[in-house]
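Thanks for the sequence, V.! I ran Iron-sulfur flavoprotein MJ1083 domain protein right away. Repeating your input here for the record:
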Amino acid sequence: MIMTKKVLILSSSPRRGGNSDTLCDEFMRGAIESGNEAEKVFLRDKTIHYCTGCSTCSLHRKPCPQKDDAAEIIEKMVAADVIVMATPVYFYTMSAQMKSNHQRSCVWNRSLACGRNKR
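Predicted structure:
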């Protein structure tokens, strides 16, 4: 029996239909054809503020105080079995949208995200 996986695809292409976005669409098509659930999030359409380093999430174990779309994306990341991230490479690094998403996901560095209450 094949188990269905929840696949989350994060596209940080600045253009719909750009190279990275096209790769996301093809990966999504293959995932669905293989019997998995797949969802694509187009980061360009989301508001994700940069991390301010306030440590509310990591040290105080509380939700980030910023009011944007990052919490929704992080919830989807936690619920996913597979996370695919696609980004164009600018100046030898990922796009700003993807970098902001990574920074705001820093709560995963803490044991709370792993289901443990101790450090």
